Amino acid sequence: MNKISYKTAGVDIAAGSEVVRRIKDKVKSTFAPYVLSDLSGFAALIDLKEILQKYKHPVLVQSVDGVGTKSIIARMMNKYDTLGIDLLSASCNDVLTVGAKPLTLLDYIACDHLNPDIIDKLVSGMVKACRENGVSLVGGETAEMPNIYLPNEHDLVGIVTGVVEKDKIITGKEIQYGDKVLGFMSSGLHTNGYSLARKLFFDVANLTVDSKLPELDKPLGEILLVPHLNYSKPVLDILDNNVPIKGMVHITGGGLLGNIPRILPNNCAVKINKNSWQIPAIFKVMQTIGKLNEPEMYRTFNMGIGYVLISAQENVNAIMDKVKIYSDFKLLEIGEVISGHREVILAEI
After folding, report:
1. Residues 299, 155 contacting (CB under 8 angstroms)
2. Kind and range of the H or E element at 131?
3. Engineered SS bond to 226: which of 10, 131, 188, 196, CB 3.0-4.6 Å?
């Protein structure tokens, strides 16, 4: 009888050690002075005094998110270096909606088998995104679980913790009729709607990640792996300069129709001008393939608008001026607040 061990059961401790060896210095390069722990510890240590002394009444803000089934596209492409960017962006944008500055990312990677090359690429993406956005990567955990996950399948999840001054928390409660709705252009699907996208492209249309469509300027797989944008830099710049914003929305699963109402007062609705931005071709291709109606598209995908600000008319120009210095971001006026009950109305104006 062959000798039974943890490794024969499907868990390779040596591979886990190799992962730590490869990523340790990269992860430590993201550490701010308030990170007291090392990568090999059982828990992350954060010096709150170092962080909170800058605030009169600090409130910690946390959000957990994952990259979802976008990871399946990465597996199909054998390209894993952008998923970590997606992870940080998704959670940063969530804590940002209340005005919080992101501080740390605590990550969790689960798979059937630890492949040090793949884990290295996943973490490298996180490190790149964290360093660009001043976030400390204090995680995380790698879990090798054969039979729970398919071969080469990875589940990537993270918790971003941020901080905001209590009297500067943005809730949407001050939104009123006549306020303007501004939208940041997205970089594509971000991390949302991939279950439907995969069904449309690979099951209905029988395409592959290498397929080249006349409507798209790159092969399909490359378009689907474009990283999720992180809107922290321009938005925090606006807030740091005391330009008032009444409400913010990260357009995730649920699209414009499902997410904007989450911050609206009971007596307010939003009218969106569909003609105020150019919908990226990838969404039009999916709608054609699936013969999907308009509400389904706007309820599933961001349709080209990744993040929404709601502001009084008199502050719109100041907001726009702040964003103009960031060449990677485009902000447009896309609608206005009207009388109604927490809904989004699509219009052609």
Report:
1. no
2. helix 116-133
3. 188
Asked if residues 271 and 333 have their Cβ atoms less than 8 Å apart, the reply is no
Pairing mode, if any, of strands 141-144 and 101-111?
parallel
Is 116 within a domain?
yes
- Which phi and psi (to 5°) does residue 251 adopt? -85, 95
Q: Does residue 53 contact residue 152 with C-beta atoms inside 8 Å? A: no
- Structural domain count, the chain: 2
Q: Which residue is associated with the tokens 């913790």?
A: 161
User: How far apart, in whole angstroms, are the C-alpha atoms of residue 272 and residue 279?
Assistant: 13
Give the SS3 label for residue 219: coil
Q: Give the CATH number for residue 332.
A: 3.90.650.10
Type of residue found at 304: G
pLDDT tens digits, one per residue of 164-219: 999 999 999 999 999 999 999 999 999 999 999 999 999 999 999 999 999 999 99
Q: What is the pLDDT of residue 11?
A: 58
**Overall pTM > 0.90:** yes
Most distant pair of Cα atoms in the chain: their distance: 79
pLDDT in tens, 85-139: 999 999 999 999 999 999 999 999 999 988 989 999 999 999 999 999 999 999 7
Contacts of 165 (CB under 8 A, 6+ apart): 55, 56, 57, 58, 59
